Amino acid sequence: MFFITTAIDYTNGAPHIGHAYEKVLTDVVARYRRLCGEEVYFLTGVDQHGQKVQQTAEKEGIHPATFAKKKTKLFSNLWKKLGLQYDGWAETTDDLHKACVQAILTDLKDRGELYKKAYKGFYSVRQEQFLTDRDRNEAGEFGAEWGEVVEIEEENWYFRLSDHAAWLTEFAANNPDFVIPGFRRNELLGALDRSGEMDLCISRPKERLRWGIEIPFDTDYVTYVWFDALINYISFAGYRAKDGAALPDFTKLWPQPGSTTGRPVHVIGKDILVPAHGIYWPCMLHAMGFSDEQMPTILVHGWWNIRGEKMSKSLGNVVDPDELADKFGVDALRYYLVRDITTGKDSDFDLDRLVMLYNQELANELGNLCNRALNMTARFSGGVVKTGGEITSEELDLQASLATVTADYRAAMNAFDIAEALKAINRHVTHCNAYTERNKPWELGKDPANRSRVETVLAHLAESVAHCAVLLSPVLPEPAERLAAQLKLDQLLSLKLADLKWGVIPDGHETGKPKPVFPKIIIEEIV
Ligand code: MSP
């Protein structure tokens, strides 16, 4: 089973393009693995607790639960619009999740992993955490990124994170698949090297924060939001679930000791690798008794920025994916989000490039290929694909191009490099369009003596369109279906990648009428 999750989004605001990117990226990987014939479980959801939600709700004069519910809808509606195919939905206010968090807290306390102590120190309200001298900038101050910083003294519950630091350093150093890409693992190793890890404060007194999961053995406290949120990856996977709970079987999703099931993959942004996912989470799992082979893989993606700057409400440069989907279409948005960024790196969000890449690569190149192939099959080959003709070096080249491109596509997708995979598909489409220009079936078709030659050329085009539809389907599921429908290949998208071989269109197969699958975006027509 391939178990893949995204970060769960804070419900203190509306979804932006960064949230949408992460979800589409994960959806593409999940769909690709299904295409490879793997059983997949894709979990995503929302992070509903914490100070930010409580504060924003207070400002609006409503209960945090009502506020979180309202914001949650914005996320789930958008994911529906963008065609995400997820299997599990995590909401941290769910009773099943709360029960799991509380069971874990009790268990960790019983194992001696938690203790209570008084601590006086600086606290960042925005980041909801205590700060140490390591968090000061070169001027010795707490920078603007921490927001309001206050000095407080209070008793809290602590997790013995430091007891697991040596294990984590060794684990991270010896397991290249713990954090992908490699340069992000190096960042984590650097952070582990610099920091003598301190224990983690995992509670907040209710007088300061009410909106969280109650500590079961000390009811004046709620759980620190990160400790609660990270647990979603196992609580919604059925960890410690009661019999009859509507949750998956944990032993199927998560590797068990000694099993060779691959690691679950957590897809997250670069800002939440250190310390949350790279340090707290593996140490929490280790403390719960998870072994090395039960640790997840963390796939870290970069950020979408705006003209080199971070997207933020205060800069007023937040891009709304809902609006973009309405204006430019879901296909253009899904395509752009994974086509114009290298997984792991940052990229600049640029509407002109969204329109250009869609118009160029999809409307002009692939759309044109499909249109020509089907139009000319109707005109010169009686609407039927004929595969029996003689082939020349031109056809051998085209078949070789498709084989190379498919191999490149697979290698890129296996490495989570969606942009490279799409570029590979486009290389074959370009090859096909150049092949058409060279062989000019529209001219050959005028003379009945060339019938067999024309049929061979057109069969190669139609076969190529079918393969491109399959390869494109994880990124653009609906257009892939439209392509399959025009080719009249009902079963095309049920094929597994290993069965995608030359000859998916049988001799004598009747094709349908072409209809634009990628209508061109005319910027002037968009208000
Ligand atoms: N609630 C926490 C995650 C808890 S996971 C157990 C959180 N939420 S968030 O809403 O702030 O961010 C959700 C995801 O969106 C994170 O992975 C974050 O990195 C990602 N992104 C936020 N801004 C982004 C961009 N501008 N670009 C790409 N991804 C970005 O952190």
CATH architectural group of one domain: Orthogonal Bundle
Structural class call reads alpha/beta
What is the rounded distance between the termini? 45 Å
Count of DSSP helices? 18
Multimeric state of these chains? single chain
What binds here, in terms of ligands, is: 5'-O-[(L-methionyl)-sulphamoyl]adenosine
The CATH topology of one domain is given as Isoleucyl-tRNA Synthetase, Domain 1
The residue-averaged pLDDT reads 96
Could you tell me the number of beta strands? 17
Low-pLDDT runs of 5+ residues are: none
CATH superfamily of one domain: Isoleucyl-tRNA Synthetase, Domain 1
User: What is the approximate shape?
Assistant: elongated
Supply Rg.
Answer: 27 Å
Largest sheet: 7 strands, parallel
Strand proportion, as a percent range, falls in 5-15%
> What is the percent of helical residues?
40-55%
CATH class of one domain: Mainly Alpha
Provide structural commentary.
With 527 residues, the protein is α/β, with parallel strands linked by helices. It has a domain of 176 residues: Isoleucyl-tRNA Synthetase, Domain 1, CATH 1.10.730.10. It is 46% helix and 14% strand. It has 18 helices and 17 strands. β2, α1 and β3 form a beta-alpha-beta unit. The protein is elongated. 42% of the residues are buried. The mean pLDDT is 96. 5'-O-[(L-methionyl)-sulphamoyl]adenosine (MSP) binds next to β2, α1, α7 and β12.
